[in-house]
Amino acid sequence: MITPRPWLSRIQPYRPGTHAPSPDGSLASNETPLGASPHVARALAEAAAGAHHYPDPLAGELRAELARLHGADPDQILVGNGSDELIYLLAWAYLAHGGHAVCADPAYRMDEISSQVVNARLTKVPLRDWTHDLDAMAGVEADIAYVVNPHNPTGTVLPRTGVERFAAASRARLVVVDEAYIDFTDDPDATTAMPLARDGRAAVLRTFSKVHGLAGLRVGYLVAAPEIIATLRSIRAPFSVSGLAQAAALAALRDHGHRRAVREHAREQRDALTGLLTRAGYEVIPSQANFVLVRTPDERRMVERLAAHGVAVRPGTGLGVPGSVRMSVPSARGMELLEKALA
Ligand SMILES: *Cc1c(COP(=O)(O)O)cnc(C)c1O
To answer: Relative to the CA of 209, which ligand 1 atom is closest?
Structure first.
């Protein structure tokens, strides 16, 4: 009987967030309650007519639009089947067979799992005041240093100056900054590490799953030095991003109004959610993402009580922060469910 490579047995599989009976109560996966831009449905219907064609392997049109948006060269951009695919590609290219990665503890789970898949060494540096301990991380001689900004599962944000100093000081050969939640920060333009990605000092990961509301279609992208993009291109599955996903991402990208609406909604509801939880006596970690991390002495009881009121949240234990619960910003109806559950 064949057996898997021995290091694979250590992997704790990724556990997705659960769903509540209603979408309004589903607060476990950081999806926007506003959904995708209305233009997406039209783009999908049009693209469906071409379902018998293989997709453009390099998502040329989308890549060109992203290049314009970020002031980068198209050769600095790789579109993937969600950021998850790109995280795996980075691990295969730069961590397999004896590589070393450094990340925060708790980390974004995919950064951990991808390292374990290729049997890389992984150094986890505990957070300090709920944010990355960049000084301690900089001293680790690694192939890749992962920075998640804002961080998941805490929602805390690092200033660009901090990330810039880290990129200069880090002993890692590549700094990867995952900006899945950057749109929800107070000042995305001043916070993003995109200027570093443009001139090759870091690699930046973005996703269409959060502010664009396309989590179900799987599109993310990496902005990095052309050599890195060329390497990842040479090892990827050529048709990993479907034509429907590419069309939807283009439509979403062009709807600036919807993006703004999702951002504003998340920020308002985040403040309301933080207020509600604080008044109920909980400690809430200050977040600039579309979720908050709530501290609770009895995580399981809180998860069960919310579930009994039709609200699904993410238990902190599965995210590496026992004694906590992570909640995505809800719709107005979701907020009412929460209010009743906490009363
Ligand atoms: C949600 C999230 C992503 C998005 O992953 P996709 O594969 O693009 O859906 C990436 N990084 C972090 C830290 C996230 O929380």
So the answer is: 9
